[in-house]
Amino acid sequence: MVIVDQETCVACGACVDACPFAAITLSDAARPLIGDACTLCGACVDACPSESLWLDVPEQGNARTNDQAAWRGVMIFAEFRLGRLAPVSLELLGAGRKLADTLGVPLAAALLGADFPEFRAAAATLIGHGADVVYVAAHAGLADFSEERYTQALTALIRRYQPEVVLAGATAIGRSFIPAVATHLGAGLTADCTGLDIRLEDRALLQTRPAFGGNIMATIVCPDARPQMATVRPKVMRALPPDDVRTGEIIRFPVDEFCALARSRVLESVVGEADQVNIQEAEILISGGRGLDSDKGFALVRQLAEAFGGKVAASRAAVDAGWIAYPHQVGQTGKTVAPKLYIACGISGAIQHVAGMQSSETIVAINRDPHAPIFEVADYGLVGDLYEIIPKLIAKISERRG
Ligand SMILES: Cc1cc2nc3c(=O)[nH]c(=O)nc-3n(C[C@H](O)[C@H](O)[C@H](O)COP(=O)(O)OP(=O)(O)OC[C@H]3O[C@@H](n4cnc5c(N)ncnc54)[C@H](O)[C@@H]3O)c2cc1C
Predict the structure, then answer these.
(1) Which in 116, 212, 313, 330 has the greatest CB count within 10 A?
(2) 116, 233: one domain
(3) Pocket lining: 319 vs ligand 1, CB cutoff 6 Å
């Protein structure tokens, strides 16, 4: 709740003006009264010149922890960036749909961004992929990602609609601000889940993820606080096929005053060169490991990738050796990929690497060690020296194309 120090309050009305939800009025005695519409966003606290207001959030769990029954529904954060929905948003809807159906509750999507036509179309796309309701927070101030604004907007939205489960993508944006949202809400957060389920007796979200260097799978529950929050890496869950006739509700969530109060401003967004390497969307990946022996080996891997019209990926050993940049890394501490074809060249198949590529449709491994674990997940195995095999493959492809 919001606490008002009556001793120091000068009844200036700054909190009334600052409240984005019109939840504060001045009493006859000229004292702030906090109404039911309060979402605990903290805007009044920041605006108070005499520091007479503060938020009383229990250390464990949030203010409504004890009233778990008030939290109902599943919500996903729909990431919208550079004019389009991040594919992980649709994958989250696929996972969220199953959870919502099991719980017998609606599935909502929270869509934050500026009110461009593509943004408006995104709400319909979310409904077509499984959302029952889309909460749209549209404001020019949300056009570019800003940790401060996104954290405040999503926190307020969650407090307002009280979903029992919140899912977000473990993307650069999700990783950057979802922990702050969880902190504001006093909720737990399980990062990088690979499996999600519901334990119906207590409506607990069972959040499964690799632990101890990927050697065990741990299932985590957050029994005390609501919402239960989890992030999921791109390409781990499957999106539902689009249904153009599906209908749902689109509800506007006001953030105007809220954005006006933000203390940070995005001056410019620059797409870094490394960010342009999007191995997660490639249909064909040629991946190189320590077996390449030097960065020169990647020249060969690149030629094979060009021959196939694919992109280049790598194991962590190759990245750590400095032969290729981190955005190419596949695995537990890299990216999760699921291309149609994954060719592992000189990669042993350590569990941490396999965790990031085992969902690929067809896996081909080239390795000179016939006992390398990569052959256990490979559909086709080529045992031999990659410096002999790859040039032959390139020649064969050119011959076929020729
Ligand atoms: C917490 C943690 C997180 C990790 N996260 C990741 C991650 O995200 N991604 C990842 O990849 N790893 C990760 N690792 C590291 C992982 O355990 C392995 O060390 C790493 O994947 C090994 O990379 P590699 O297969 O390229 O090298 P190696 O294991 O050294 O394998 C090289 C392979 O190349 C073969 N070879 C050598 N020369 C040739 C040749 N001329 N022709 C054909 N084959 C040849 C060898 O037989 C061998 O099988 C992580 C480890 C930890 C502890």
Answers:
(1) 313
(2) yes
(3) no
Q: What is the pTM of this model?
A: 0.70
Most informative mutation of 287, 328, 348 for ligand 1 (most atoms within 8 A of CB): 348
Q: Is the pLDDT of residue 65 over 70?
A: no
Which of 285, 347, 389, 393 for a ligand 1 pocket mutation test, highest count of atoms within 8 Å of Cβ?
347
Where helices occur in 205-332 by DSSP H, the ranges are 256-260, 297-308, 316-320
In a domain, 61, yes or no: no
Task: List the residue whose alpha carbon is closest to atom 49 of ligand 1.
Answer: 348
**CA nearest 44: which of 70, 72, 12, 68?**
12
Q: In total, how many domains does the chain have?
A: 3
Alpha-carbon radius of gyration of the chain: 25
**How much is the pLDDT for 58?**
52
Q: How high is the mean pLDDT of the chain? A: 90
CA trace torsion 376, 381, 383, 385 (10° rounding): -110
* 133 and 181 share one domain: yes
As beta bridge partners, residue 342 has 285, 363
Sign of CA dihedral 128, 131, 135, 137: negative
Distance (Å) from CA 264 to ligand 1 centroid: 42
Ligand 1 atom nearest the C-alpha of 293 is 38
Cα 332 to middle of ligand 1, angstroms = 12
Q: Is 345 in the pocket of ligand 1 (CB under 6 A)?
A: no
Q: What is the pLDDT of residues 223-244, one digit of tens each?
A: 888 999 999 988 889 999 999 9
Q: What atom of ligand 1 comes closest to residue 317's alpha carbon?
A: 23
Are 245 and 117 members of one domain?
yes
